[in-house]
Amino acid sequence: MSLITLGASRIGYETKIYFRSPDTLFFTFLFPVVMLSIFTAAFSAGGNVGTQPDGTGGISVGAYYLPGMVAAGMLLSGLQNLAVDIAGEKSDGTLKRLGGTPLSPFSYFMGKIGQVFVTGVIQVAFLLAVANFVLGISLPTEASAWMTFAWVFVFGTITAALLGIAMSALPRSGKSATAVVIPIMLLLQFISGVYLQFYMLPAWMQNFASLFPLKWMAQGMRSVFLPESFAALEPSGSWDLGLVALNLGLWLGIGLILSRVTFRWIRKDT
User: Is 33 inside a domain boundary?
Assistant: First the structure.
């Protein structure tokens, strides 16, 4: 069988395993939906975000947090899911057994990245459906907005998946994987405009967040779902989609290199 054929078969297998894991479904697939619902219910009484001095304008709390939750879903499905999953496979001997089969690292990576992409598409479709039909959040109607959504989503999802493969080398065992990975994910979400309004964060924290891909995923998604007037709240006063693409491209390259350099069927120290 060719590398592509083996990789394609792994996509189906990995996707089935993903949906058979209750903890994975909650903490990666449903988590953005749950958090968006909580934020909408908890903070809607405070009024709209971005209102004018006379109290007019602005958007609902749910509408403001939606792009951040979309970006968080990309990070959770890719980086967190794969980092924990692959660390567990190293620990329980799965990778050692796979290393003795014709499966190549390319086909293995293809299966993992394909699973992230498939489940990510389903996740974001579910999130947007809940946002629109349950929470009453209006979605964009312009084709240009959905074109931006498409390339930010594809770029960001692949980047997150590659970084997840690379980060799986960090935990010393499968048992410690969640303790190592989840705090890092939470920190990135808090400083990147997912749980906090990014324009209200101090400048040094915004600059620090700019070193990591989630900030750029969230900024790209804000350009899709928020009114054009909200671009003035960004650090540069614009959406800077060129910088979004550049930074995601840099992180994709970093993830590709690190994932290939650090990946081993068997740990070096075993």
Answer: yes
Question: The pTM is what?
Answer: 0.92
Q: What mean pLDDT value characterizes the chain? A: 92
Q: How many CB atoms lie within 10 A of CB 201?
A: 18
| Torsion angle (degrees, nearest 10) of CA 115, 256, 124, 117 | -30
Listed in sequence order, the residues at least 6 apart from 132 whose beta carbon sits closer than 8 Å to its beta carbon are: 138, 139
Q: What gap in Å lies between CA 61 and CA 73, rounded to an integer?
A: 18
On whether residue 268 sits in a domain, the answer given is: no
d(CA 108, CA 74): 20
Average pLDDT over residues 175-185: 92
The Cβ of residue 203 has, within 10 Å, a number of other Cβ atoms equal to: 8
| In-domain check, residue 37 | yes
One-character DSSP codes across 123-179: HHHHHHHIIIIIS-------HHHHHHHHHHHHHHHHHHHHHHHHHTTSSSSHHHHHH
Q: What is the rounded (10 degree) CA torsion for 47, 128, 187, 18?
A: 150
Domain span holding position 241:
3-44+57-262
pLDDT digit string (tens) for 206-229? Answer: 999 999 999 999 999 999 999 999
Residues in the chain: 270
On whether residue 270 sits in a domain, the answer given is no
Asked if pLDDT for residue 269 goes beyond 50, the answer is no
Q: Which two tokens stand for residue 210?
A: 């700019």
Query: Could you read off the pLDDT of 185-204 as tens digits, one per residue?
Result: 999 999 999 999 898 999 99
For residue 99, what are its two tokens?
């290393």
Total number of domains constituting the chain: 1
